[in-house]
Design brief:
heterodimer, A: mainly beta, Immunoglobulin-like, 6-stranded mixed β-sheet, 5-stranded antiparallel β-sheet, 11 strands, globular, B: mainly beta, 7-stranded mixed β-sheet, 4-stranded antiparallel β-sheet
């Protein structure tokens, strides 16, 4: 059983559409991180959310941390083919080791 | 900027063979990690080294050993490879062990197949 559950597992959309990826847990996290991984490469950190209810924007990407600090979402506006990749959420449930979700594979078709 | 460098990038082994995966970072980070990534399971921590001279087990340590050779290098050894160890292995580093707010920097992975 994954500590962090991500949904959906796969998402395929047309260029210009919007999408949302979810990361949920029954545990409380002091912070959550979002990474993007492209084929043949390692994950790269996109953002860290720390405060319950926090919203962070990174160009067309909007990240939200739930009020109870148990969940997070990633929303992409007007997706582009360059957004294609595996999106991973990760958090530390206070044992000083990062736990990762299984990821959401996003494909944006031109 | 090299960041985290892993060697080799690809490897095929026969069951029972041994090998060592190498990892080096040039960011002067204190903490280093080894993960494996399997389809549908995300990244799972094998071993980590909070600081030079220390190593600890992660979520899936069985069948593996590690060595923190110095502050820069952290190697992962498979003593007797098994098909269940077929995976993509990632090394990562972070400035300090306290993971909250600390980004991890990943290498590009070693793709290991065991026949």
């Amino acid at each position: 059983t994954q500590l962090l559950e991500q949904s959906p597992q796969f998402l395929s959309i047309q260029e210009g559409e919007n999408l949302t990826v979810y990361c949920n847990s029954s545990s409380v996290f002091s912070s959550l991180q979002w990474y993007r991984q492209e084929p043949g490469e390692g994950p790269v950190l996109l953002v860290t959310v720390v405060t319950g209810g926090e919203v962070k924007k990174l160009k067309r990407l909007t990240f939200q941390f739930g009020d109870a600090r148990k969940d997070s979402s990633l929303h992409i506006t007007a997706a582009q083919p360059g957004d294609t990749g595996l999106y991973l959420c990760a958090g530390d449930p206070n044992d000083y080791k990062l736990s990762f979700g299984a990821g959401t594979t996003v494909t944006v078709r031109a | 900027n090299a960041g985290v460098t892993q060697t080799p990038k690809f490897q095929v082994l026969k069951t029972g063979q041994s090998m060592t995966l190498q990892c080096a970072q040039d960011m002067n980070h204190n903490s280093m990690y080894w993960y494996r990534q399997d389809p549908g399971m995300g990244l799972r921590l094998i071993y980590y080294s909070a600081s030079e001279g220390t190593t600890d087990k992660g979520e899936v340590p069985n069948g593996y050993n590690v060595s923190r050779l110095n502050k820069r290098e952290f190697s992962l050894r498979l003593e007797s490879a098994a098909p269940s160890q077929t995976s993509v292995y990632f090394c990562a580093s972070s400035e300090i062990r306290m993971v909250s707010n600390q980004p991890q920097h990943f290498g590009d992975g070693t793709r290991l197949s065991i026949l």
